[in-house]
Amino acid sequence: MVDFNLQPGVRLHVKPTSRFHVNRILVNFATPQTVDNPASRNLLANLLETSTAKYPTQTAFAKALNHLYGADASASVGRIGYAHTLRVRAEAVDDRFAQPGVFASLVEILYQMIFCPLIKDGAFDEATFKTQRQNVVNELASIKENKQYYAAWQLDRLYYDQSSLMRIPSYGRLKDLEKITPSSLVSTYHDMLDHDQVDIFVYGNVDPQIVFDLFSQWPLKPRQSPLPQDVCYRQPFHHRVRELTEHQDVNQAKLNLAYHFPVFYRDENYYAALVMNGILGGTPYSKLFANVREKASLAYYASSQLRLFSSHLAIQTGIDAQNRSQAQQLIEAQVKAVQAGDFTEMVMQEVKDALINQYQTGLDAPGGIVEHWLVDCMSNHLPAENVVESLQQVSHDQVAKLAQKLQLQAVYFLDGEE
User: Peptidase M16 C-terminal domain spans which residues (predicted)?
Assistant: First the structure.
């Protein structure tokens, strides 16, 4: 990997490889999340990916991409700990398999998206703005209809402290979206360009010096990174378990639990945490899958997910409402079993093999590699080495001791009965 500082606060990361037929570019803008910026940046991402001054309609933009042998370009928002990110991506076939100049043209497309949006007289084009805002409104409104996603979001809101900005999703809230105007969004856009930490990732069959020459022409000003050195959110343990039951017209109830788990991305317990989660609920070999879903038939699905930038672990299940008490008892029993070391070496090895296979499969996808690279960069880590060896070295005792850090903090139940 070759790293360049284009400006203070603006970094270029290039990793040449001839493994793939495509070249992948990711331009990431990052700033601390606030109350208002998730909604405005989400809408901004939608506008950046649909039109530019040069390509004022989605049709014109699509034609430009199609001329680059079916290139792809998009923008979206996300969150890594405290950091709110707006990510602009592009991918096109490598010049070897098309013609010289495709990569340079792809960089030019990104330039048009980022620096030449469809702005007239200090405001985003009114018609385009209204269309994209309605699209985002529809997306946010539809979240409540996806009950599994909605329940996961409600568990997060219940887990995080009342004053925490983490309670606001990275894509924003409807009430914040309603305040945004075409001119106020221009202010959001310029604030992002002028003040966000910028990281540009290029992965493919490229010459680092040529890549540097292309991106060094971009008009990005020097800036001091607005992000703290550590972007992880650390919430203290609370002795009182927060519980919330909500009633809606649902065919399948949702029972979700959140545990305080002070382990963070790439810290000394990271690999043991991956194995522990795999044994608990993160793989088909897990206790939640085997005992809650398969043996007891108490859940339509049951899984666990690590939240390594926000100090917790979430368990999600879909159940019949009348089985709530029995299901929760059995779920908590699985946590206690892992804490007690009640799992076999064979299961632990199956989990390790599944995690290793997942990791190696990810190495075959340029997009996944670059997104993982972004997470490493945002958390100030070098790309991981010896991942397979690190997973294989995790011991039975390490997993059990680490699981003892799990402490129940929140229980959310979505019920269809009043």
Answer: 179-355
Domain ranges of the chain: 2-215, 242-415
**Res. 385 pLDDT band, cuts 50 70 90:** confident
- pLDDT tens per residue across span 217-240: 999 999 999 999 999 999 999 999
Domains 2-215 and 242-415 agree in fold = yes
Neighbours of 221 (CB within 10 A): 12
C-alpha to C-alpha distance for 374 and 71, rounded to whole angstroms: 21
The CATH code that applies to domain 2-215 is: 3.30.830.10
pLDDT in tens, 123-161: 999 999 999 999 999 999 998 899 999 999 999 999 999
Neighbours of 349 (CB within 10 A): 13
Alpha-carbon dihedral 225, 226, 232, 238, rounded to 10 degrees: 160
Query: Which tokens sit at 255?
Result: 């029972």
The per-residue pLDDT for 372 is 93
Strands 407-415 and 242-247 come out as: parallel
What distance in Å separates the CA atoms of residue 69 and residue 228, rounded to the nearest whole number?
Answer: 41
How many Å apart are CA 307 and CA 328, to the nearest integer? 21
> How far is the C-alpha of 91 from the C-alpha of 96, rounded, in Å?
14
pLDDT at 243 exceeding the cut of 80: yes
The domain over range 242-415 is classified in CATH as 3.30.830.10: yes
The amino acid that residue 408 corresponds to is L
Q: What is the CA radius of gyration of the chain?
A: 23
Query: In terms of DSSP bridges, do strands 2-7 and 123-124 run parallel, antiparallel, or are they unpaired?
Result: unpaired
Which candidate, 291, 285, 282, 297, places its Cα nearest to that of 332?
Answer: 291
